[in-house]
Amino acid sequence: MRAPGSVHPSLSRRRFVQGAAAAGLLSPRALLAQSTPWAQRPSGNPQRLTFVVWQYGKIYEQIAKQFEDDWGVKLNQIIEPNVEPQVAKLTTMFAAGDEVDVSLSPVQYLASYIQQGIVQPIDGLPGLDQYVKDFTPFARATAQRDGKTWGLPYFSTAWVFIYNDELLAKAGFKGKPFKSYPELVEQARKAKKDGVAKYPILWIAGAGFEQLPGTWFNLTWNRGGVIFDKQLNLQLGAGSVARETLKWWQSTFKEELADPNSLNLRFIPACKAFNAGQHVYLGTLHHYYISLINDQAQSPIAGKGRVLGLPGDGKTIGYTMLYFLTSATKNREWAWKLLQYLGGRTKNGEYTQAQRLAQDAMLASGYTPVMESELLRRAWAKWADVPTVLDVFRKATNFAEVVPAVYQPWYPRWSDAINVELTACLSGKITADQACDNMITALATAKRA
Amino acid sequence: MREGELSKGRLALLLNLPALAGLLLILAYPIAFAGYLSLHTVSIRQLRSGELPFAGLANFARLSEDPLFWLALRHTLVFVAASVVLEMVIGLAIALVISDERVWLSRLTRVLILIPWAVPPVVNGLLWSFIVNAQFGYLNRALYKLGLLSDYVNWLGHPWLAMATVVAAYVWRTTPFNILLYHAALQGIPAQVYEAAAVDGASPGQSLRLITLPLLRPVVAVTLILRTTFSFMVFDEILAITQGGPGNDTWVAAWYTYRRAFQPPFDIGLGAASAWVLAVMVGLAALVYVRLVYRRVEYA
Asked: How many domains does one find in chain B?
């Protein structure tokens, strides 16, 4: 029996009908699509291709089916429930010599993956130039380094504050969310004094790579500082913006304006807590979590959540996550085709996956045409004021600008250490000065290890 | 012995060979390979290429210099002490109750007592993470409704509470194992021994101290060894409930090993060294138990 999708299929009646129908659809657009790289079939007929990802709704089942229908090549879908098991699965498969064609990486792990030889650059593959042209500045900053391109975008995100419109009005600030940090404190004090909320602010401060440290990085960046400079020198010394920011942040806990439970909450649990309607402000977190807060099906405060950019000039951070081609692939051309289905264009020339993610989950795209599309605006309007969110993206900077060390292989270790210090500081066990001094010491240990 | 018939010794050896081969393959080989890895520089790249540069004792030296490793060891010892004591005491107490002829227990109750043992560890961890969730967990809700709490408690936000929560989750799952063994051992103690003690005027407390506990000593030794060994290796509950937090207050040795070996920068050599230190500690603990508890039984 001939393999599905083989180059020279026998002319069955079904094939004939399909061919005739296809011929009838040869519009100029379809012709154009066929001449483009994403419509061209790579050579050879691989038995199957493998990708290793973490679960996100049904997107992988859907895109895999489309790939199989379009090209007649079976996909081995290895879908882990979340990031940690996915990392373990990918790395153990790679170490064992198993074949993996495409995978994805959390931002902080990409440097290690490159160093370990798990990722291979995609330069020179057909159509890449057009993708790079479409990359948003975020995506370009993440995907390209050392003169090479390391993958295609999964999604982009930017950090925002979210507030409960109803509680803010009860506190006497209807339609007037804070525009500066002193104003945030003033509003929180008033809300607390008036009994509107026991703890008006819920910070995203649960330990993790981008939760507790991410909030601190973001506040620091918004106040004009960085964590590392471009030469990877830590900027936590006396009088530094980062150190002063930490002092201010700690004060919100000391004054009991911030919920102490913040220290145990990462993104989704924090959203669920915020949905209980006990807090005025939630921050800082990925923009798309507003879709959880304004979701009628799971949020008691649905419709009351509002996105708020960071104060002052609105500087905030964001990043793009990447799909990449592994060096374990035995068929680079076909692996590239699969990579494009996950992180680029499908056969019809559409950014199918990116559009689906924007529509279903409010994820932003690493491609400018998707970000500027009417489709995205219509989809996002269900959850938030779209111009506000897009304005946040215009003011957002790649995470790595603020923390260039994120691309260093030792970064995850330092990240572990700073989580400990930040937790100790915000829970009042140590001062901000001690925490920063300890983080400086921890850097040497992380590099040495 | 007839001609051509195997001697007893040879037959025993032959019958034991499959089990021996299984043990060598499943236990001895991975342990030996981990030992080999601990003496080499190993990361993902090296594992794939098969070229592992010899590092001598460098991984063990790095381990000894890592304050996080020592902290994880301290936490492990606290966890082991707390969990083993609780498992033994609670297990024995429940076994004594269900073994007492005067106490009627339905079959359903007996089954329910054993159910936690059948729960997969990671599922147990997830269950407890829901139960103790500060915002929407059942524990806070129940205690609040009963008037025992004036405000919700962040069980996983405080170092000691987080450790206590993990211990509670672990003990809940593993205690039925002890109950089962103690219950079986208690059934094996002849009733006449207690009757004779009663005739001699022994109180229930004296019977427990002078008859039950000494006769349970072999089982106690076995449970001590097994439970200590498993407690040293606690991982699933940590993964599902605290992930080592808050801060690093529930980092234990197995979690340290996992993080070092399977998270970037994938220092598998260091992880293997840590696993070996853990294995040696477990082995030593088993040796101490065997010498202390078994020997005394022999002379009792």
From this structure: 1
